[in-house]
Amino acid sequence: MARKFDAQRAFELYQNHESTRLRENLQNVDSEHDNLKKELESAKFTVLPGRDKYGAAIALFTARLHFPTQTTHQQVLKALVYQLDAALESLDTQRHGIVFIYDMTDSKYSNFDYDLSKKILNMLKGGYPARLKKVLIVTAPLWFKAPFKILRLFVREKLQERVYIINLSQISLHIPQESIPKQLGGACPSKHTAWLQVCKGVAQGQSPNMDTYFLACKRRQSQTSADMTSVTSQRSLSSDISDNLLISDLESEDSKETVNEKYSCEDLEKEEEIGIEKEVIVEKETDDLSANGTVKRRRDSDGKSNNVKHLTDGKIHENSVQNGENDQETPRKKRPSSAVSNDIYEESIHMPDDGGIELDQLVQCVKAAKRRGLYEEYAQIKMEQPVGTFTVSRAKYNLPKNRYADVLSLDQTRVKLPTVEGDPSSDYINANFVDGYMQKNAYISTQGPLPKTFGDFWRMIWYCQVMVVVMTTRTVERGRQKCGQYWPPEEDGEEQFDEFIVINTGMEQSQDYTITGLFLHNTKTGESRQVYHLQFTSWPDYGVPRTASAFLDFLFRVRSCQVEATKSLGSSWQGHSNGPPMVVHCSAGIGRTGTFITIDISLQRLEHIGNIDVSETVRRIRSQRAFSIQMPDQFVFCHFAIIEHGMREGKIGEIDWEGFDDSDSDED
């Protein structure tokens, strides 16, 4: 029934709902189909036997029971439609509407699906022929703040004041105690199996008596006009409570208990900057960007970032058709088309071969060569000219996008961005694909972003499907700007770079590195992702670290983040089993960046076939990202990191390095 018995409104609701069913392919709902049957029996969504004191039905979605990688949007929506169709057989539900509870108790970020949440709200707000009285989000964890900042733009426009974030003690403000489910501290028992039998009867056209399931919670006929005034006052009070609870509940101690669960693998890395003399342009980084408006940083009078709604003109665009919204069995996390090859059989330039040496042989070679010998070996590599061209990097319109005049991107392996408004120069960023061990395009080596390239950087992250960013430099070292602040540095901070909104959802800081969770939202498609940003902060201003211990810890944290990120994609990722490429950058994108990649590839090879070839690995990396490994001490550090890893793993014993430093490093 439409509000106020408006026939035109009723017809519009019907049309909207039919359009939703058609768009999501929900016309045929077979509860005996294996996938849907499993979805229904999971009990993640159910309709409770109780009602609120005004007669509304109560639907419950339990977030911790939802595992996005194990199902699809279509199956979840079919389960909802199947049950809501049955609920609407009740005249009381038609008259008094539905209260939707989203129980986030004990849920983690891996249980949350932004796109699915938006689809459900879209269906309930007006597309489903029953009045949605309110949405109650119960015990929302701290990490939920970021996606909710985006969702609230959508729900505030359409649902206005009907979305409430509450804790357990506040449920009774909205639902009678006898109708609150037991899992939320109430007295209403779960009868999901019985409810599914009711749904089955409705689906088979049996017209079951709804009173046999729903408890008698109907509105009393003798309710006075004074009671109705009380109802209005209560609604107003609830609206006021909602605004206050949005922050207070999310910052409660109960919420904080779950925040570390989300960021346990979100390591931040920092990469060393390379001593390169010429800088093309000296950029002054301010909150306001230059005329091209690439970055939109907006502050209120207190110096804090304004709410995201100001950055997106108050609305989020729906997913575009090209991103697969009409797919019948599209997994819940749709990925945009990418410049990255998903051919897992495409061969990397780093494959198993017989050219390497075993770990104990490496130790003997390093001891024999000493520092001077390794310097000479590196000097020979450095004298070899790059194989390839730099035509695009040297184009006049691209020169300002290069942080350093003599650090350019090889044409053959450069990352090509989708062009913007037909501008051919907009496809350029100073970045190259670099193969990993037995993995094509495992890395993207790039420079530290300039303020004018922040938008390009996030566009690369988005279209290359990157989920892990490795940073091995500080933004400022020795008083020099090494990298722009391309992400919000403070927890809960938010910035907009072109069409991308970036929100800092939490930080974990250790002695040697920082881990930041970044929520990345594409305002053009309406899609969002979580990106792990790992920054190594212990690289000294001069030379290289004295030991590789902290760097190795950092490297393996990066790997664990990549594993977790890839696992979260589920079947939506069809590429290499190691996942999408990870971005690695320092300042120029060749020194510490090349060091990180060399060590990572070498250790993977050592684990696989038991030998390594550092010099050849460096040569091959340089064939894709020219001049990688900028200084001789970085080349030496790669050897020591591999050896130190072997010692930590018990593969070799303690080593006496007396006499190794027969010459001082000439690195400044």
Automatic annotation (TrEMBL):
GO terms for molecular function: protein tyrosine phosphatase activity. It comes from the Eukaryota. It is found in: Cytoplasm. SMART domains: PTPc, PTPc_motif, SEC14. Residues 19-46 form a coiled coil. Its EC number is 3.1.3.48. It holds the Pfam family CRAL_TRIO. Keywords: Acetylation, Coiled coil, Cytoplasm, Hydrolase, Protein phosphatase. Protein-tyrosine phosphatase that could participate in the transfer of hydrophobic ligands or in functions of the Golgi apparatus. Residues 291-343 are annotated as: Disordered. SUPFAM superfamilies: (Phosphotyrosine protein) phosphatases II, CRAL/TRIO domain. This is Tyrosine-protein phosphatase non-receptor type 9. InterPro entries: CRAL-TRIO_dom, CRAL-TRIO_dom_sf, Prot-tyrosine_phosphatase-like, Protein-Tyr_Phosphatase, PTP_cat, Tyr_Pase_AS, Tyr_Pase_cat, Tyr_Pase_dom. Residues 374-645 form the Tyrosine-protein phosphatase domain. Residues 33-192 form the CRAL-TRIO domain. Residues 552-636 form the Tyrosine specific protein phosphatases domain. Belongs to the protein-tyrosine phosphatase family. Non-receptor class 3 subfamily. It is an enzyme of class 3 (hydrolase). GO terms for cellular component: cytoplasm.
